[in-house]
Amino acid sequence: MKKLTLYLTAICVLALTSMLSAQPKNNELLGSVKGKVIDKLRKEPIPYATIVIQDLKEEIISGGITTESGEFLVNNIPNGNYTLKIQFIGYASYATPISINRKNRNFDIGTIELLEEAESLDDVTIVAERTTIEQKIDRKVINVGKDLTTTGGSAAEIMNNIPSVNVDQDGNIALRGNQNVRILVDGKPTNISAAQLLKQIPSTSIKTIELITNPSAKYNPEGMSGIINIVLHKNSNIGLNGNINFGLNFDKNARFNSSIDLNYRSGKFNIYGNYGNSSRKSLGAGYVFREDEDSQQFFSFLDNTNSHLFKVGIDYYLDDHNTLSFYTNQNIYDGGTTGTTDIRFVENPQNNLSQLLFAQGENIGSTYNFDYKHTFKEEEHSIELEVDYNVFDEDKTDQFLFTGNTAFLQNYTDLIDNKRENTTINLDYINPISETDKLEIGYEARFRRTENGYISSLFANSDYAYDRDIHSGYVTYGKTLKKWSYQIGARVESYKVTATLDNERIFEDDYVTVYPSAYINYTPEEKNSYQLSYSRRVDRPGLNQVNPIREWSTPRIISIGNPALDPQFTNSIEFNYTRKLEKGSLTAGVFYRLINDEINQTLLENPDVEDGQILTFDNFDNNTAYGFELSSNYKVATWWSLNVSVDLYGQTQKGVVGTTTREVDAFVYNFRLSNTFKATKNLSFQLFGFYRGPQEGIQFETEEFYFVNTGARYSFLNNKATFSINFNDIFNTQKFRFNSDVPYTQFGQFQGETQSVFLGLSYRFGSGKNRKVSRKNRDKNEKSGGGIL
What digits encode the pLDDT tens for the residues 316-330? Predict the structure, then answer.
């Protein structure tokens, strides 16, 4: 802390010295220096890099930071000889002498290439040692380092390490305490559920995780709390290159995953292919106790799943201004669940009841993507057409057997067939009108077709169709004014939906909505940045929320959707602050959301089953949510670095549960601390801790939740191979516990195989330098063509 205080004091003194020394003498003409900063290997701009102008006494004369496009311009420099220094976290510093005089007053340094600080520069995929956080104008970017990829074998197992993100015991993901979040992979939505998807992506395939909490009008407005975009590594090195990964995670059962990524780049072609496999067997168990009838419900579920993911793609560079790209990915999945649910009555054991579940299913998800991009002579001036089509086909068989007091129950079998098709067409035009102005215009069409067939040996058969058409257009305008920059935009959407049950239309809706957005960014000096933003979002009901066909059931509870759900709209405003430290960075932010017709789960009494309940969805009253976030990464010593984050969220919820009207002011806080200790050049250790406080909801109150993980990582074979070992949930505390008083007084607990050991091995090979050609992404500023999906 003493060093940090001295550092901040020095900054203030240097700032004052800079202002005094920068004052021109009488009749002295001032000069300028400009240039551009890019990543040496990826050839991508580096925004927010620090620019410092020092005199021969190493006193700071002036400075600034780079823009989103990596460019910088420093004005008001007196005549003289100086040193230009460029710095950015995770990159080697750059320094060069410059001279400002009457003959060379406006100095153009050209393009500066910074080299990422990594131990092996000839690896196919360069992964930083430490995870870093960048606050960009419309998103927070988590650059996944080795300290996070070590913690688990899949994306699901590292998500709880990410600030603002939580994953519950069922694999459901939440952003800022809300599960109404849109999940993208490389900027693309998928037909695969988020819980299944995250378990299939190896953690080593992840390059960055983007938290877009207040998306601009350019992006699809779905997802109340925003967008989580998982960006996978793409390799476009010249020659043949690849990456192989193996992971084994075991507790009572084993979970295995592996992947291989290959690419071949020669001339105008870049061809890539990927394969990933996941084989998982895991046990989850828990109980629910009801006080009113002195009964306990014990349940245990064993999942056994296998998945195979394939991706093949090609980029064809027609010339310097035109690129054609195509890829397809195929996801083949099959799995089964064996589950038991036992209901035990303390006072009336004759009423004891058991349900045995045998579930088996398989699905295939296929995506086909075509992209054409034309770049004009002016930098960043482009037009792009992208067409994306994906289809999902699933078959499930659920068999239910009962023993004990089965007077009102019969054995039965359900056959379920799900089909979904998504087609998305995007046309985007970007025009940098000047060095300080940028205009973006685009059109998007989205068509979704869904069919669900249900055949039962006991209940009535059903066919459900849900179709949705969305047409939208957007325009955004951004401008940079020295220390200030802003962006405004609006998106207009036409939305039409129809729902049909057994050939009878049961719901339809058709409306037009405007979604505005605005951003203001202020950077008074190189170390500090402030941002204020506003956007309007929508959360349209998902298929599982509106499907009236039973999703699952136990003797006491059935889960069904509500076809009459209305969309919920959210107005969100947030303020963010970023501080660059000498050995790290600090980001802080506050947000406020006003939610109209909030969609939430509700538990209702089932009139057709004695003491039965229905788990479904409903629109609650208008609610509010607010919160504060603080995160930092800091290198305490040459051998010790840490990432720490604190999240505090509050929300007011109003709704009806059963026949009871309730209003709750809920408050929850999360704390994460990740330490990386570097023992030798090739050996490092990690220690991670997580704590989530208790939370009160309209229907359930969840208790505190915490766990500690540790691990080690060793590199060998000239850093091309890496071995990892982790011990997760050391104290076996990762348990989900809850209690409720409506519609019945009850409490319970659930826990999966959380106390586990992970072993991982990866090997990278390559034969050339990177010559990446960027390709635009719908929900990201660049497209990744490699990886698993």
Answer: 988 878 999 998 989
HEC sequence for 418-485: EEEEEEEEEEEEEECCCCCEEEEEEEEEEEEEEEEEEEECCCCCEEEEEEEEEEEEEEEEEEEECCEE
Distance of CA 745 to the CA centre of its chain: 36
Q: Closest Cα partner for 564 from 505, 626, 515, 639?
A: 505
Pick the more confident residue, 3 or 756.
Answer: 756
Give me the residue label for tokens 């409490």.
747
Question: Contacts by 195-199 with C-beta closer than 8 Å and gap 24+?
Answer: 195/156, 195/170, 195/171, 196/171, 196/307, 196/333, 197/155, 197/789, 198/154, 198/155, 198/156, 198/159, 198/167, 198/171, 198/173, 199/154, 199/155, 199/156, 199/171, 199/278, 199/280
Query: How many Å apart are CA 656 and CA 602, to the nearest integer?
Result: 8
Least reliable range by pLDDT among 16-20, 142-146, 176-180, 706-710: 16-20
Q: 100, 114, 206, 212: which is closest to 154 by C-alpha?
A: 206
Q: Own/partner pairs for 3-8, CB < 8 Å, 24+ apart? A: 4/581, 7/581, 7/582
Q: What is the pLDDT of residue 3?
A: 41
Instruction: Give the confidence band of 517 by pLDDT, cuts at 50, 70, 90.
Output: very high
Edge to edge, the sheet with strand 552-553 lists: 552-553, 557-559, 612-619, 599-606
Q: How many CB atoms lie within 10 A of CB 538?
A: 19
DSSP 333: E
What's the full length of the chain, in residues? 789
Containing H/E element for 554?
none
Counting beta carbons within 10 angstroms of the beta carbon of residue 91, is it exposed (0 to 12), middle (13 to 18) or buried (19 or more)?
buried
Q: What are 566-586's pLDDT values in tens digits?
A: 888 889 999 989 888 888 888
Q: Is residue 160 a contact partner of residue 148, using CB atoms and an 8 Å limit?
A: no
Whole-angstrom Cα distance, residue 195 to residue 201? 11
User: Cα 120–688–146 angle (5° rounding)?
Assistant: 15
What is the identity of the amino acid at 680? T
Distance CA 178, CA 83 (A): 49
What does the buried/exposed string (b/e) look like for 390-421 if buried means 16 or more CB atoms within 10 Å of the residue's CB? bbbbbbbebebbbebbeeebeeeebebebbbb
Cβ–Cβ under 8 Å, residues 569 and 597: yes
